[in-house]
Amino acid sequence: MSVAFRRESDEEHREPRFELPIPPGPNLVTGRGLRMIEERVAALEAQLAAAQGEAREPIARDLRYWHTRAVTAVVAPAPPADEVGFGARVAVRVRGTTCVYTIVGDDEADPAAGLIAWSAPLARALMGAMEGEEVAFAGGKVELVKLG
């Protein structure tokens, strides 16, 4: 039979649904981040149990991502008191403006709430710095005003 007379299925015209990308590197989390992941898994499992038909597919995909993140999560040890590390709360001055950030895991990051991922350029630039130190960042300098 000619392809011209073949009935096309709806599946042929759908956009492919790829798995959610897993950030590279270790899955470091804070205690808060681990609880957030566990809560997300529980919520998605409840949604999946209630969903029917095609509505299950995106929920199942999200659940696979969060299950992977839960299994690979490693709670990072507390940073040294005098040095920027994972989980540290820092006040930095950039071009005269002081901002306060906490360095957290990739899934926990929310820059608008002052939570930046440890893999973010600013966090990487600050790692290992001490209070009062200036570090190079984005062609300029960032001053670590306060740690803790």
Average pLDDT figure? 90
* Biggest beta sheet attributes: 5 strands, mixed
Question: Treating each run of at least 4 consecutive H or I residues as one helix, how many helices?
Answer: 3
The parts where pLDDT drops under 50 for at least 5 residues are none
What's the shape? elongated
Largest sheet, order of strands side by side?
A: 5-4-3-7-6
Structural class of the secondary elements?
alpha/beta
How would you explain this protein's 3D organization?
There is one protein chain. With 148 residues, the protein is α/β, with parallel strands linked by helices. The chain is built from three helices and seven strands; from the N terminus they run βααββββαββ. The chain has helices at residues 31-50, 56-72, 121-126; strands at residues 27-29, 73-75, 89-94, 97-104, 115-117, 134-137, 140-147. The strands form two sheets. The protein has a five-stranded mixed β-sheet. α1 packs antiparallel against α2. The chain is elongated and about 55 Å long.
